[in-house]
Write a structure and sequence with these properties.
alpha+beta, 1 helix, single chain, 8 strands, eight-stranded mixed β-sheet, 28% helix, Immunoglobulin-like
Amino acid sequence: MDKVIVTALLVIAGVTAAGLVMTTLTPIVGSSSQSVVQSQRDLSQRIETDVEITAVHAPPNTPTSVRAWIKNVGSTEISFLDQADIYISSIDKSKFVVLCHNDNTCPGSWVAKEKDGTGKTGYWTEGETIEIDVTLSDTNKLESAVKTYNFEFNTANGIKSVYQFQYGQ
């Protein structure tokens, strides 16, 4: 009789322990699977994102003005264009300018425009080319002695494109 009572108590304890484990682990597994799904979604978005700088023009007599054309060559829309990072740097590393979106208090600022010249808002669709107008401060203007510069564009999710251009020729 003692063995039956002990066996019954062990079965009850086992079922109770299994219930506690399931109650405790189920929310943890659920939240960790949500993290995996979200990271997969972010990775998929990054893989589908790609941009290409197609041209950069710096007129010889205006060292504070640069225009660039960038095409969305990826297979997804790009959001948060205003959070993109744009840099201009010289090949000889004597100049590096971080540009701010639509902020004239920075060493340089930029605005995005549609093909028709209007301001770019909303999503940047697949295959669409936008124009970036850069205005540099007088202290960071392009120098004809340096001549070769890099124009670097980085999307908000970390996709990068670099284009070399010449000034003063």
